[in-house]
Structures are given as C-alpha cells and as structure tokens.
What we know:
Elements: E1 9-16, E2 26-32, E3 44-50, E4 53-55, E5 71-80, E6 85-93, E7 96-104, E8 114-120, E9 125-133, E10 136-143, E11 155-161, E12 171-173
Antiparallel strand pairs: 1-2, 2-3, 3-4, 5-6, 6-7, 7-8, 9-10, 10-11, 11-12
Amino acid sequence: ATFDGSGEVVHPDVARVPRGWAPARRFLAVTPYPGGDVTREIPSIYESGDPAEWDVPAGVTNPIVKRGKGYLSDPDLLFEPERRELWMYFRHVDERNSVFLTASADGTHWSTPTAVISAPNHELVSPAVVRVSENTWHMWAVNAGPVGCISKSTTVEHRTSTDGLHWSSPQTVDVSGPG
C-alpha cells in the first residue's frame, strides 16, 4: 500500500540491518510513480521480516520526507554501522538535481534531510551509494544531460567519499552497449 493509494512504485532499494537494531531485518525505500506522475514520487519506507511481505513501520507515516517545489525521487538505502543508522539518499529535482540524505536510528524517526551534492539538471539521476568501509564510499549516478530521461545518450559517473557526506568530482565510467 502506498500513501497515494496507487500501489505503483519505482526505484526500490533494500537495506538489511543487524539483528536487534529494529524488529524487522530489512527496510525498503521506494517512491510511488503512478502513470509517470512525478508529483507523487516521494520517498517512502517499509520494513519486513519476510521479503515477501512489506509493511509501513509502526509509527511511520509515508512519505517520510515532505515535497516542496520540484519533486523527490530515486531513493537509495544503506545501513551505516558506525553510527548504527539507516541512511536514505534521494534526489530533489527543481532548478538543479540535489542529492539529500536523511538518517534514522530506529527506522521510524527520520532526520531533517541535508543536501550532500548538487549538479545541473539532469546530471545526477538515480544515485546508487555503496559503503565499503568507514572511510571508503562510492556513488554511481546517471548523467542524462540537460534533457533528462529522453536523452539519446547518457553516461554513468562515479564519485568517492570518505564519510558518505562529502563527495568528489564525478569521473565518467566506461560503460557502453549497442545503439
């Protein structure tokens, strides 16, 4: 069930948390996107003890962040073990693309989102963050250029970080396919 009643979601990302951190072991971030309606694309959180069943955590009202001007999309979720927090990155699209971070110590209460990186529209699409160790973080994102998803070609870019908050300049990843 989605907050907008559509039941249609996009950009799923799952993070597993340690035993005892929360009643559930898995958390899922998604955004509703019924019929391509970006006004309803706002990050939401679900939990599961069984990957076949997902529920809104007790005490949570989705979406977990509020939309202002523009739209919110592309959530990416991970567990940060040093801080014992669930971290959700997501994209804010307005006059620029900005990736924000919100964190939770229990899967229920989420911090005020903080911008961690920004780029011209639509040069920072679908960020995927991987934490390798306390000081080694990677972010891959699609640079779709000024026209976005209808672009005839895109590139994948890679950034690094030592803390998951401050990111390097992008480096283009050598990815190609037919056509």
